[in-house]
Write a structure and sequence with these properties.
The protein is an alpha+beta fold and 87 residues long. The protein has helices at 57-73, 82-86, and strands at 7-13, 16-21, 24-29, 42-46, 50-55. The chain is 25% helix and 34% strand.
């Protein structure tokens, strides 16, 4: 299973973008995208550094807030939601 956190575009160059997610900066390839990318856009990035989807700002910010909340809970991420499954 793979979880992709939306990354915000800081700079766009020819065929690449500099992105940031949770304080980590990363240069990624835009080769797999069929649409233009601009500073401020949010991208999903697969292993290997290829952006594969542009995400609407509202959806990206909502996902990042939820991820931040889950990370703040600490503990073992594999047990998240166990209390929901038992209900």
């Amino acid at each position: 299973m793979c979880l992709a956190a939306p990354s915000r575009v800081l700079e766009v160059s020819e065929g690449t973008a500099l992105t940031e997610c949770f304080g980590q900066m990363r240069e990624v390839s835009l080769l797999l995208l069929n649409e233009d990318v601009a500073v401020g856009d949010y991208l999903l990035i697969q292993a290997g550094g290829f952006a594969f989807e542009r995400v609407e700002r509202e959806r990206a910010e909502e996902a990042l807030a939820l991820m931040q909340e889950l990370m703040a809970q600490g503990g073992d991420a594999r047990s998240w939601g166990d209390d929901l499954a038992a209900a």
